[in-house]
Amino acid sequence: MATAQELKNAKELGRLLQSARQREGMSLASLSKLTGISTARLVALEDGNFYFFINNGEEMNDVAVVYALALAIEIPEHLRANQSSTTAAKTDVFIPYFLRKKN
Q1: Are 37 and 65 in contact (CB under 8 A)?
Q2: Where are the domains of the chain?
Q3: In this structure, are residues 53 and 63 in contact, taking their beta carbons and an 8 Å threshold?
Q4: pLDDT tens-digit profile of 26-54?
Q5: List of the chain residues with pLDDT < 50
Q6: What pLDDT is recorded for position 98?
Q7: Beta-carbon contacts of residue 64 (< 8 Å; ≥ 6 apart)
Q8: What is the DSSP letter of 99?
Q9: What is the predicted pLDDT for the residue at 83?
Q10: What are the backbone angles phi and psi of residue 91, rounded to the nearest 5°?
Q11: Are 31 and 21 in contact (CB under 8 A)?
């Protein structure tokens, strides 16, 4: 179950990413093509829909990182989900959650 702070941060992150995309004049469809992330995932991220994502915060964070990299923006530290031992914080190569090998 997500905490109130996690849900609030998800909404804030979504607003931040959406405004950055709109400033660049980029559509969701073109961002989807650029990142390989489905439009549905991008919409859920921009809406701050924490529960749309598998493993909630971790996957949402991974999608947000790919989104931010595509727009060359930084995600503020306070909006990043806690990193697990398999994410970029502890590996040499960033591999989004949805692309990782399932155990």
Answers
A1: no
A2: 4-99
A3: yes
A4: 999 999 999 999 999 999 999 999 999 87
A5: 83-91
A6: 65
A7: 13, 17, 45, 75, 79, 80
A8: G
A9: 47
A10: -130, 165
A11: yes
Rounded CA gap, 82 and 97, in Å? 13
Name residue, tokens 């959650």: 97
Q: How far apart are CA 11 and CA 102, in angstroms?
A: 28
Angle (CA) 22 27 32, round 5°: 120
Residue 13 token pair: 């992150």
Structure-block tokens of residue 95 = 């591999």
Question: 82 in the Ramachandran plot: left (φ > 0), alpha (ψ -120 to 50) or beta?
Answer: beta
Residue with tokens 């969701």: 28
Is 0.90 topped by the overall pTM?
no
Q: Is CATH 3.20.20.70 the classification given to domain 4-99?
A: no
